[in-house]
User: Fold these one by one.
Assistant:
Number 1:
Amino acid sequence: MGKTVTAENVSAYFGTHRVLNDVSLTMQANQATAIIGPSGCGKSTFVRCINRMHETVPSGKMMGKLFLEGKDIYKMDPVTVRRNIGMVFQRPNPFPTLSIFDNVAVGLRLNGYAKRSVITDQVEKSLRMAALWDEVKDRLQKSSTGLSGGQQQRLCIARALALEPDVLLMDEPASALDPISTLRIEELIEEIKQTYTIVIVTHNMQQAARVADTTAFFLSGEMVEHGPTTQIFTTPRDQRTEDYVTGRFG
Ligand SMILES: Nc1ncnc2c1ncn2[C@@H]1O[C@H](COP(=O)(O)OP(=O)(O)OP(=O)(O)O)[C@@H](O)[C@H]1O
């Protein structure tokens, strides 16, 4: 089951440049939370703080607290954090030298799964969950590079789901995809949020409106407003949110 992620007064820096300023936000278990806002407002940095990727950048620094179901993420082992908090990126990034099967199995093997039948079952389960199984079941040993962009992105989602994380972070997961593949990813989000907590960064406001239970609007490193998605898009409390969602800037 998904777990709740809570950010308390999170600030993030690249060197001395502060790109997130005192962000507090609760991302509820088994819901999809969308993060919207203009380019450069800190959306990606925020999700990268959640799974401790921000600290892998040499100048990256984070202040404040992040909790996974009440447990301090920054007191956990980073490898455990990234296992429990999976991530899907803007551009599909399957391992090009690996087969479709091995792309999903690799994380399982690295995490100590050795029994072949267990790995095979988990690969199938993950590919089914990512709505890719029927398209690839007859070519599991073929290279992932033969898949379309949308299929590659669903493969990356299957790879992330194979380890059964609590949370799935999605950083503009459909921005490189055609409308049909985008729709499939959105349907998939709807499906998997029963089991996972989803945090999705998106530039596409229709997409946020379609998939997210709640939406948070970021501006210049600050979290301006967070609420039920319909409220954010129809009756925002803050003028800056209204200007953004009605296309007056951004
Ligand atoms: N590796 C880096 N080194 C230095 N500054 C960075 C780095 N990555 C991002 N930044 C800066 O941090 C700020 C926030 O960037 P971030 O990528 O989090 O924004 P974003 O809202 O996700 O933008 P976009 O919508 O364009 O992806 C920007 O000013 C950006 O220039």
Number 2:
Amino acid sequence: MTKIRVHEYAKKVDKPSKEIIDQLSKLNIEVANHMATLEDNAVTKLDGIYKKPAAGRTQARQQHQAQNRPSGQGQSRPQNSGQGSSRPAGQGQSRPQNSGQGQSRPAGQGQSRPQSSGQGQSRPAGAKGSNFTPKAAKPTAGPGQRNNRPGGGGGRGGQNRNRKGRQQQPVNPLPPMPKREKELPAKITFSESLTVAELAKKLGREPSEIIKKLFMLGVMATINQELDKDAIELICAEYEVEVEEEILVDKTDLEVYFEPEDETLQEERPPVVTIMGHVDHGKTTLLDSIRNTKVTAGEAGGITQHIGAYQVVENGKKITFLDTPGHAAFTTMRARGAKVTDLAIIVVAADDGVMPQTVEAINHAKAAEVPIIIAVNKMDKPSANPDRVMQELTEHGLVPEAWGGETIFVPISALKGEGIDALLEMILLVSEVGELKANPARRAIGTVIEAELDKGRGSVATLLVQDGTLHVGDPIVVGNTFGRVRAMVNDLGRRVKDAGPSTPVEITGLNDVPQAGDRFVVFEDEKTARQVGETRATSALQVQRSEKTRVTLDNLFDQLKQGEMKELNLIVKADVQGAVEAMAASLMKIDVEGVNVKIIHTGAGAITESDISLAAASNAIVIGFNVRPDVNAKRAAEAEGVDIRLHRIIYKVIEEIEFAMKGLLDPEFEEKIIGQAEVRSTFKVSKVGTIAGSYVVEGKITRDSGVRVIREGIVVFEGELDTLKRFKDDAKEVAKGYECGITIKNFNDIKEGDVIEAFVMEEIERK
Ligand SMILES: Nc1nc2c(ncn2[C@@H]2O[C@H](COP(=O)(O)OP(=O)(O)OP(=O)(O)O)[C@@H](O)[C@H]2O)c(=O)[nH]1
């Protein structure tokens, strides 16, 4: 053990060495000079005089060391002082400390080494104390904080150790320190879900703690378990941490671009009007009349072009009309989620009154929450009776203003062009109330009014710009198509470069033909537009594929009728190759007008899973002649919806297919397999025949069921069950998991390993 020298002690007590030597002399302790070492008892005595604490020696040593190194260097301190002997550590020592040793010594000067305290705490040991700077010494982690990282990180570890040392000094033995936990975040965010581990990380807690909390809440979770929103919220509530779900924006969902935006950027836009009404009440005449009086008059040289919508100007304000009369277009668009119309004009012939389609139109407009203006048409006719129209409409909740209601009625004659101006004025009035606005500065969004494939120009689509401005050259996604706006033509057949809100324009430049009612969105660049368009096209195709119904003999005729099928694909499996060929040849001879029978695959042996996947991929029906599907094939067929037809007589196969193709399939009965039993042993009993000692492996076997004997996937016999016994008693049915004795009528060649399949004929309802 290193002893303290006189000058060291002097330094420690802040006295000159000489005074210490004198004092020692007074105590009858002789020392040669200031370099002399002091015995323990001498130190004790000196301590008594200089009132130094018991740990004086160590402390003296520490102070001495402190003076001999740059300030801030990891200050050594005694650990577990008071336990047994205490001594200063040799400088430069580097070894693990174990407080359990009962020895305490200051750490070497800030040197890096792993420390292991009796508390089992493991913390990063400090790096070289010389790296310390006062700034770096700022505490970051509290004592007692679990920190299992390996040492070696900068000055902080050393500083931590110092802190620990200072705090530990008076404590003996060290009680388990209260765990100081990381501060909880004020708020966490997540999207969709988080695993326990991810949530723990976000909260700065151990996953085990989260698991414990979940357990207390009645949720058993593992570290990698995904937690749903509710569970995350519950846990966060426990910690009083705010939680917010981030909604991931799906770039390919065009609807998100239709969210309303900052109103301050918006300007007034023209209303978009649809004309609806009963047949022959004058919708087309009205649309033409408006167009002719308003468009051609002002636009010299303009050749009106039917692009599905047009604009007129009334009192210096534009009005857009959708040029597709009737509510079919209106409903189609609405069904596709597009709200295009701001106002509906319902035309009612004054000589005819409210008719069924008038009511339908009213209901459509109401459902779409679109304001209605009633145009009472054919006022020029002597038989016109507008009062009757008004009367009838009140029954549908449309009360004219004249009668104290709110509905605007405008008497017109579409044919003579009378009342058109009044109607347009009313349209403007109603739209003013509606405060229709858009931001012409943003990238355009809108809806497809019409689209077709033009021989010369390719895909041509009429778009109604609903917000923003569409420019030639804009990268665009339209429904599931994309492209760049190559050329734009307005309703007057003129080429335009830009189209603002509520403007209909016909564009070219799309890679495919979109559908009426599809949304369009202009993107920042062509690459994004392409990506979004392609992704949308792919997912649309997948949806279409998954929706495609598989052909079955039951729906075959319907599919043929709808012209969806020109060919009937078949896969033929039979017990022997000869039968396969015979079957295939007979099937090929089936002659039903307009349909070809195409055999895409044949084979001898049981129907396998690969037969089913081929059938699924090529929309084929599988025909099994004297063969059965194996377990996997059965499962696959059920999952894929593949129709398997099992037969034992060739002409029945042919008949069934032929009838199905002609839509004459007998709809009444269908075979249903109710169970299977495995033959485990056989007994020959005279007079009775062969008894099959069997075990029911699936479903059940009933007394009245038909049976088939299957040997290695091939049907060797089909007939009726004769007796069914449990032990010695006759049984009505034997369920899965039970043994039974079975005899089959007129069949004694039963063998061990055979499978007896039981089936019943069930009456079914054909679709
Ligand atoms: N006298 C008179 N006849 C009109 C008026 N408006 C339309 N008609 C006539 O009514 C008939 C039907 O007019 P359309 O405009 O084709 O009616 P619609 O509602 O478009 O009919 P559908 O397209 O079949 O639904 C035509 O013969 C028009 O000439 C009108 O104001 N006065």
Number 3:
Amino acid sequence: MKARAAALDDADPLAALRDRFALPAGVVYLDGNSLGALPRHVPDRVASAVQTEWGEHLITAWNRDGWVDLPVRTGERIAALIGAAPGTVRVTDSTSVNLFKVLSAALSLKGNRVTVVSDSGNFPTDLYVAHGLERAHPGVTLKVVAPEAVAVAVDEGVDVLMLTEVDYRTGRRHDMAALTARAHERGALVIWDLAHSAGALAVDLEGVRADFAVGCGYKFLNGGPGAPAFYYIAERHQAAVDPLLAGWFGHAAPFAFETAFRPAEGADRLRVGTPPVLSMVALDAALDIFDGLDMGAVQAKGRALTDFFIACVDPFAAELGLELASPRDPAARGSHVSLRHEQAYPVMQALIAAGVIGDMRAPDILRFGFAPLYVGFSDVLSAAGTLETILRQESWDRPEFHARKVVT
Ligand SMILES: Cc1ncc(COP(=O)(O)O)c(C=O)c1O
Ligand SMILES: Nc1c(O)cccc1C(=O)C[C@H](N)C(=O)O
């Protein structure tokens, strides 16, 4: 396996990108699907935004340093990574808030009686947002089905299909093209949450004719903790969207300070308030690493890394109480692999203490994210080896590894 890892690293066309990240020595970082690593050049860019732009240019920086255009500029850069047309993606707010905005837009396009279909593998915040809108609109019914039952639920009747492409727990990937086409045949609108896709998979929003989408800036896009998220509105819907969460940055003329809301042209109408400039500068800078990258190559490396991890773990998995929770077919999963283990919490704490950082999702999932830009095949082998040692020696069974932390 060692020779195979070395050969795969040697043949990796993206291997050089790793040097662009400031990863601590001795750490194998397998949680870029939750918080992406720090690109080396980002601290200087943020420091300059603080010291020069904020410190010296003060409020003139909104125009002089282009702060006001950041949601648009950064949105256009993300659009290029997810197969979206220019003018359809904007960066702002959190994924949850953006989902509220696009789901309320989709509901309003569908009239008074609307059935929303989602699945139980969806990230809880998505379901909370949908439940909130269901409570606010008497004509809205939210139907939550098992992930495998989505296609049947679509056939039974749907007005808005709201799904996350890659399941945060299992890594199972929905077939975006097939489900979008199926929902469209029934006249429905389709919203995709790309939290675990953007920056890792070759998403093609225009190709699949998605209606709306949202996604995170802090995962595979490496925008930093709490980085703003993005939303997508297909061009064909933009003029018809009348924002429920209307705010002055979504107004046609924010600095005219009119009392009545007039939506901005195009996708900008779903912007709400002042952009978080420092976080946006970090995200914008982080996106430099994607310049000129082929997302097909990024996705291919993610598949190779996850395949290799499964191959490394397979020989000892059953004996040591591990069960693969992710699909074996690489085309049917995203860029993370999940393993079930009865003692997932202390096992993950022991892994972190040994320098292998993944995370745990209750009740029993060990989750390992393989960010294609900075994880190598030797890292994968070393993580699998550490996991085997911890399980064989039962070194996870120490009081300090059982103590619960807030963020898991
Ligand atoms: C699929 C998915 N959607 C939404 C979110 C939440 O995003 P935010 O915290 O930006 O609202 C996450 C992770 O936090 C997620 O995994
Ligand atoms: N957003 C996070 C946070 O603020 C703290 C810890 C984790 C997160 C996450 O992003 C979790 C992630 N969406 C997940 O897939 O589990």
